[in-house]
Design brief:
Length: 153
């Protein structure tokens, strides 16, 4: 069975096992290693990507779920790293080791797509499932809140 979907605007067609996790295809077959493997059990958020604009955990998303849909990874969020969240991440010096950060940004980007003016509570709620072993939570929230505030201007 052929499964077709797009990844960062590029068409992908595969006859791999339909139950293979999307994360494996992204990292091991397409070489898109910005998306990280953390727990493999939908518990940490490190593997978060967008499926038709919604945040999903690619470690537990079988590729059959992507059939006919748009997958966006951190590499495809902007052509040159200029998405407002990426800019704010630099301004606020958010990352420490960086391992969780692609997932954090992709979760925040999905929130901003759904709700361009989220409240502080919305931001905390949306990001509550994305874990950071380095404890960068305050900087993450500050950066997302700044982007949300700027979008009010
Ligand atoms: S690696 Fe997917 S949620 Fe942890
Ligand atoms: S920056 Fe190290 S795990 Fe989040």
């Amino acid at each position: 069975m052929k499964i077709k979907f797009t990844v960062n605007g590029k068409e992908m067609q595969t006859d791999l096992d339909p139950d293979m996790p999307l994360l494996w295809v992204l990292r091991d077959i397409m070489g898109l290693t910005g998306t990280k493997f953390g727990c493999g059990k939908a518990l940490c958020g490190a593997c978060t990507v967008h499926l038709d604009g919604a945040a999903v955990r690619s470690c537990v998303t079988p590729i059959r779920s992507a059939e006919g849909r748009r997958v966006t990874t951190i590499e495809g969020l902007s052509p040159d790293g200029s998405h407002p969240l990426q800019t704010a991440w630099v301004t606020y010096g958010v990352p420490q080791c960086g391992f969780c950060q692609a997932g954090q940004i992709m979760t925040a980007a999905a929130l901003l797509q759904q709700k361009s003016r989220p409240s502080a509570e919305d931001i905390t709620q949306a990001l509550s499932g994305n874990l950071c072993r380095c404890g960068t939570y305050n900087r993450i929230r500050d950066a997302v809140f700044k982007v949300a505030q700027d979008s009010k201007a």
